[in-house]
Every structure is written in C-alpha cells, then in structure tokens.
Specification:
By secondary structure, the chain is mainly β. The chain has 1 helix and 4 strands, in the order βαβββ. The protein is globular, with a radius of gyration of 9 Å.
Length: 40
C-alpha cells in the first residue's frame, strides 16, 4: 500500500472502494490490490 497525495486516479479504477478510518482515507481494491493507497 502506497501513501499518496491524491487518490483521485485510484478512486476511478474498477473495484475501488473509498474508506475513511479516523483521519486517514484509504482506497481499497480487491480486484487489483496493487492499486491500494492511503492518504493522511
């Protein structure tokens, strides 16, 4: 999982799911786990 400034490109991918946990925003992708990232 990478830490990125902008998650906009990852949110648009097929199978992406945006999750907020506390102050952090995660993009989780079960179809393609390489596209997972965290912000914050």
């Amino acid at each position: 999982m990478k830490v990125r400034r902008s998650l906009r490109a990852l949110k648009a991918k097929d199978g992406a799911q945006v999750v907020k946990r506390g102050k952090r925003v995660y993009v989780l992708n079960r179809k393609n786990p390489r596209l997972q990232a965290r912000q914050g």
